[in-house]
Amino acid sequence: MQPDSPPDIGLAPVTLPQAWQRDFAARDGSRYRLLISVPEGPAPARGFPSLVLVDGHALFPMAATAARLQAQRPEATGVGPAVVIGIGYPDERPFDAERRQRDLLPVPGGADRFLDAIIDEILPAVARIAPLDPARRALAGHSYGGLFVLHALFTRPGLFEAHVAGSPSIWWQDRAILASEVAFRRSGPASAGRLLITVGSHEQAPALAVTLQRAERLARARMRDNAAEMAERLSASGCVNCSFTEFPGENHVSVIPSMLSRAVAFALAGTAQDKAAAA
Predict the structure, then answer these.
(1) How confident is the model at residue 276 (pLDDT cuts 50, 70, 90)?
(2) Which of 83, 154, 208, 262 would be 50's cystine partner, CB 3.0–4.6 Å?
(3) Could you tell me which residues are beta bridge partners of residue 244?
(4) Domain membership flag for residue 178
(5) Diameter of the chain measured on Cα atoms
(6) CATH number of the domain that residue 230 is part of
(7) Who contacts 93 (Cβ-Cβ below 8 Å, separation ≥6)?
(8) In which domain, by residue range, is 63 found?
(9) Exposure of 82 by Cβ count < 10 A (0-12 exposed, 13-18 middle, 19+ buried)?
């Protein structure tokens, strides 16, 4: 058995700069653990831009680090200081299978309930720690989280200015999300903001040897093709400013760091002007 902690040879826990966590109970009794990164220095007059991440324990450390690094070179990145919010669960697992299915899937009492909690409860709680600009908030997620992002955009356009759907599970329930997409495109909202859809090139056709059963499942899921086709339809519709990025050589797990780096650059594009204006 491995020891619970390493030998006492002068090691100390590693922490993320400018990052904190707090437990949070929603009004419906659901418990979350919020991971929050707040920039140093005063907030812009309108409040900080914000990036909200579901599956917080999996995505927050990389996204917070990427946001901090990119904000240090605004002349190169165009990214300024922003509040990064990871919504995780008390057990701290990177992906809590049971909770994420309950929160992220568009089923009765699922994604819409969670979206209400984010907008009406979680973001106001974070705003008491650091002022947030409601006109410059972004939502990002991976896999089921990417599906959640699409659901939020299609059913409540305007809640977020930027949306990042990483490897979205469009295949779920025989591509049920397409009905929401069609309704969204027909409604033609004028203020749907921006959307980035990303996927790894090996999510559909793996480079590693896999079992026949897994190969068939990946082929049915059509992760790459579903994402690319949806991005093409949305771009043509004019309903949302949609971009698509395919990361070469990445699978459904290895793509996460690349997606998060691009998500920060996309979601926080142009925010460096806040820092320039305050200088």
Answers:
(1) very low
(2) 83
(3) 197
(4) yes
(5) 63
(6) 3.40.50.1820
(7) 57
(8) 19-278
(9) buried
> Looking at the domain assignment, is residue 212 inside a domain?
yes
Q: How many residues does the chain have?
A: 279
Of 63, 158, 89, which is closest to residue 119 (Cα–Cα)? 158
pLDDT in tens, 59-77: 999 999 999 999 999 999 9
pLDDT bucket at 7, cuts 50 / 70 / 90:
low
- SS3 readout for the chain: CCCCCCCCCCCCCCCCCCEEEEEEECCCCCEEEEEEECCCCCCCCCCEEEEEEECHHHHHHHHHHHHHHHHHCHHHHCECCCEEEEEECCCCCCCCHHHHHHHHCCCCCCHHHHHHHHHHHHHHHHHCCCCEEEEEEEEEEECHHHHHHHHHHHHCCCCCCEEEEECCCCCHHHHCHHHHHHHHHHHCCCCCCEEEEEEECCCCCCCCCCCHHHHHHHHHHCHHHHHHHHHHHHHHHCCCEEEEEEECCCCCCCHHHHHHHHHHHHHCECCHHHHHHHC
Residue type present at position 236: A
